[in-house]
Amino acid sequence: MAERTAAPRGSYAKGIAKREEILQSALEVIAREGYRGASVKVIADSVGLSQAGLLHYFDSKEELFVEILRKRDAVDVATYSHEATDSGAGDIRDGFIEVMKHNAEVPGLVQLYARLSVEATDPSHPAHDYFLARSRGLREGVADAAADNPTLDGVTQHLDPETFARILQAVADGLQLQWLLEPDIDMADIIEQLLGALASAGSKNS
Known about the structure:
Elements: H1 2-33, H2 40-46, H3 51-55, H4 61-80, H5 90-103, H6 107-119, H7 128-147, H8 153-158, H9 161-181, H10 187-205
Helix pairs in contact: 1-2, 1-4, 4-6, 5-10, 6-9, 7-9
């Protein structure tokens, strides 16, 4: 009996490992080639698979790209989560600034995010639930950090943390669209100026 179950378990583990390899390679391909240059064929070639072989690990092309965004989120959390490990002034500012700086280095992934976020407004789109959950999680994280951040006490006296989180998310998403049209825009600097101005204005009005 043990011999019969060993093979499926091994195959399952290999499948998970291959799926992770595909997603990691896809991140690199899209960052290098851009969204339009990162076809399923190009991604498949990067991991030594045919297009049909690659899609064996995903339900569809759309699901592949959703999972690429999930992988990007996981990498970003692992890379930048240290910015929010201690309460204080850096919790929101530093984390957002670092992520925006990084996004400016991977335009293909920003293009993918922007395109799918629009398509995902259709409730039937495979990315719909991903974007709803991602947005909700981001806002909850920002709202919690804002509520505990003494430098934003003045802001949160006038804006509840949930509203502040929605505004910051809207600014970040809007800046990325502007940046795709005008690559000279310094997204990180604008976010830094905004948060600094809000903290200063809030402290004066508190």
